[in-house]
Specification:
Elements (H helix, E strand, L loop, with lengths): L7 H52 L1
Length: 60
């Protein structure tokens, strides 16, 4: 007789696959975060320069 439930071996394989996909997603998330940090650094530096210039202009 064939039942509707998956065999225990298949369940373990599916769980393992989910962990692999989750690990890949975590790595891609970390890479994306690093890229975002590198891309935004120049903009942060420019904002600091202009922010510092405007604050010194206000004091004078």
């Amino acid at each position: 007789m064939s039942g509707t439930r998956a065999s225990p071996g298949r369940e373990v394989g599916r769980r393992k696959g989910r962990h692999v996909f989750r690990a890949i997603a975590d790595v891609l998330r970390q890479i994306g975060s690093a890229i975002a940090t590198v891309v935004t650094l120049p903009f942060r530096a420019v904002a600091r320069l202009f922010g510092g210039a405007s604050s010194t202009a206000r004091r004078a």
